[in-house]
Amino acid sequence: MRSLEASARAVGGVQEGFPELKNDLLLRAARGEPTERVPVWIHRQAGRYLPQFREIAEKNGYMKCFNTPEIAAELTVQPIEKYAMDAAILFSDILVLLPVMGVDWKMTAGVEPYAVNALSTPEDVDRTLIDADTVDLQDKLGYVFESVTITRKLLDGRAPLIGFSGAPWTLLTYTMHGKDSNGRDNSLEFIKKYPDSAKKILENAEKLVVKYLIAKVEAGAQMLQVFDSWAGILSEEDFRTYSLPYLLQIAKDVKGGLRERGIEPVPMTVFPRGCGHSLHDFENSEYDVVSLDEDVDPATARKELPSKSLQGNFQGKFIYDDEDTIRKEASEMVSRFGTQGYIANFGYAVEKGHDPAKIGMFVDEVRSTSEQINKKRHEETSSAAAHA
Fold first, then answer.
1. Is 87 helix (H, G, I), strand (E, B) or coil?
2. Phi, psi of 122 (to 5 degrees)
3. Contact 8, 16 (CB under 8 A)
4. DSSP per-residue string spanning 229-280
């Protein structure tokens, strides 16, 4: 399927065949290394708020956009060209894994994506679920991996490329989201009625996600993020049963799998949205970065995750405000997090109604504030050394 297959050969743990990375701020921040300013990017930054995105999407249709590697690559790079973002995240959808699991999905204008053969009983699970160990991902999702490779080359080293996946729990919710039924409600009912079948789905999804993420790194991804977008609908107790164990295992198995292939593990981010109650559970995990939603206090996160880099958590609602407010809130956010071991992002994502010019204000303020803080710290350190 992929003519570009050899582009990510591992020689001494280094991906070959790609342009030299000129901006490694994101990777340094993820690893807790010193950075001259805070790197910034935004969830869904390749999206409908950009006129140039809408032009391509309306011409081709959403499904064709992420099914066609050249189009997906072009859309992924748009925010880099407009804002010089410090990361590119592949334009794709977490739902591409559903058919590989045995669940077909459909998207039509004005309707939330839904599963055509949504799961609702243990019999559905036994009849439908495809064993992840038997799946040939290159055959089923080769277009995604080709998109990664083309994008990496198109970026020309301007920013690292992030590959992502939905987490097992979030994938489970979508397997139960029918055209006329809500997957979040259905999944919560399912785990109470059929806990064993729920765990069967989750265990299978965990293995599939691991294979998927490893393949993305082999194709050229330089960092990975796991989105558990619907983890917050679970109680704290259920989160520890139906989400957390699988999130932890994914990071362990992905990094182990890369090492087995002679590839240096890339940094990994986890986004357990709505689960600020369990941040400390990621302190001893294999994740390098924990992404925070809007409700998490930075000081609390630093206390509970002292060895991890943090990402987040600007409130997107401020983008609808005036420039002074946007800059004030962005500056205060950077000050609260600090400039080291930190990646600026939204607590959730860019919305269709966001003004591109105001997104630019946010990005600019993160950069200028963090540079000013670092400059002041350097001057103070130099002065103290001179008087020592």
1. coil
2. -60, -35
3. yes
4. TTGGGS-HHHHHHHTHHHHHHHHHHHHHHHHHTTBPPPPEEEEETT-GGGGG
d(CA 204, CA 208): 6
**DSSP assigned state of 230:** T
Average pLDDT, the chain: 93
Amino acid code (one letter) for 79: P
* Separation CA 312–CA 334 (nearest Å): 10
Q: CB under 8 Å to 80, separation ≥6 — which residues?
A: 88, 155, 158, 159
Contact by Cβ (8 Å): 96, 66: yes
Q: Quick one: which of 335, 342, 325 has its CA closest to 368?
A: 335
Here the contacts of 278-282 (C-beta below 8 Å, separation 24 or greater) are: 278/236, 278/239, 278/240, 278/244, 279/304, 279/305, 280/304, 280/305, 281/240, 281/244, 281/248, 282/247, 282/248, 282/308
- Rounded to an integer, what distance in angstroms lies between the CA atom of residue 373 and that of residue 330? 13
d(CA 260, CA 281): 26
Nearest Cα to Cα of residue 224 among 134, 157, 164, 301: 164
How many residues in the chain?
388
Computed from CA positions of residues 25, 311, 330, 383, in that sequence, does the dihedral angle turn out positive or negative? negative
pLDDT digits (tens, 9 = 90+) for 140-164: 999 999 999 999 999 999 999 999 9
DSSP state of 22: S
CA separation for the pair 66, 76 (Å, rounded):
10
CA distance 357 to 361: 7
Strand partners, 311: 291, 343
pLDDT of residue 1: 32
Of 367, 386, 387, 385, residue with least CA distance to 375:
367
Tokens describing residue 191: 């785990």
Report field, pTM of the whole predicted structure over 0.85: yes
Query: Which residues neighbour 241 within 8 Å (Cβ) at sequence distance 6 or greater?
Result: none
